[in-house]
User: What shape does this take?
Amino acid sequence: MKLLKSSLLGSAAAFAAIGAAQAADLPIKKAAPIEYVRVCSAFGAGFFYIPGTDTCLRISGRARFEGGYMASYSRQGSNGDTSGYQGRMRINMDARTQTAYGTLRAFVRLDAGSRTGYSGIGQSGTQQRIGQAYASTGVDQVGRDQQYMNVDKAFIQFAGLTAGRASSFFDFYAHDFEITGSTLGSDNASTNLLAYTAVLGNGVSATLSVEDPVFRRTPIFAPYASTVSPVFVGYTRGAPTVLSTIDTVQRERLPDFVGALRLDQAWGSAQISAATHELNVGNIATNPVAGTNVNIAHTNSVQAWAVQGGLKVNTPFVAPGDALYLQGAYSDGAQLYTGYSAYSGSYAQNPATIQGQKFNQFFSDATINPFTGQLQTSQSFTAVASYLHYWSPEWRSALFGSYGEQSFSRAARLAQGAAYGLAGSSLISGPNAVGVPGTRFYQLSQALRDNYQFVAGASLIWSPVKDLDIGVEGYYTQIGLKSGRVIDQDKSPTAYNNVAGINNGTFVPRTATQDSISQVRFRVQRDF
Assistant: This one.
């Protein structure tokens, strides 16, 4: 047995030696080293190194629910909804790399959501008109249900340069303390731009920005089907006899030029902004007939402009985190820079602020004089104040208000009225019709009437844990005429089809000078 055991052990040892020798001849495949994600502390909390690079990345986002109520004084058309709901999402990616020239940064943000109900919350005509929202087509959904998608940010920052889709450098307050963003004031969160910022020291910086003009356009007034305006191109024995139209759709030509001077200190910040904005239109639709005198060759472009001043004062002596914003803006032909129509949007000539409102406000940046064919700019101004107060670290409130006006020159309305009389109401009809000067309809028509808007509101927000807000906001909006009265479209919806009856007194429409509405919104929001 001992001999057999020794033989077996010897054989096993021999096989092991042979196996070891053969294994030594084979290539050895080593396991790939595990590369762990490392924390990047150079740019603050939440950043980590992208494996295999020296770039730090932070991923963040937001989820939001909102419900709202706004009374509707009419069930005509798309009006009639009193409640609305929306769910929103946001994803942010912030990539930064330290270089010899400073930090190289790329930031992207995607917003998306689903909205239903009344126009203030359920469907944005503004976002739909600029291709960022998509309306439903169902019988009960059209005008009341909308999906929303927006590349809100996509910019690069390097050595003072900002290039891509970013917030306009003109803006300052930008509804910082509000849930709804209902006050008047410039708030262009997404535009395409190329800018350079110089840091001058002691908290002072100066920026020159070249920005996409499309997101700052308000349509040129057009009484014909919203895209053309009348112009007389020929006269016979001194009287205008040949009528044509001008295409009012603006072309992409000069960019907007924006300059801003900003001061940031421990007590708060201040900023002065200025911008130029080109107004341009297309060509005349038809040539004058033989035997008439040509009145106009083309419509000259106009450089509109706007200025703004803003101040933010931190008030920790009241409570930690408290702050006050004050801001004022004025524009000549560049209404979106004052944000006069910030709530309803200016991508239509007269979008509704109130469901079933009694009359429409006109937001046109300019009109075309039908006798000279040249642009006549409108003017607007806005002023806003907003205060944020912390009752405790978990509870805070905002109190805000704004006032603004838009004015059209008297000559602009008179010229449009004269064209209305010469062209005939069959050519220029509906709510955009000015009427013949001196008639009752001219006195009561809503087109190109100087108007004002007033907003006041407050909110209460509870943050039981970090990055969670549960809040409610209510506000009051009033629109009105600076002078005179207009036809109440809610009480006299067919008045604009009965011009002759209004002028001869057989039809007496109800009239109004102002309209108002109160709204409330509830929000639950989690940031991460």
Notes: DSSP finds five helices and 25 strands in the chain. Residues 2-25 form the longest helix (24 residues). The longest strand covers residues 83-99.
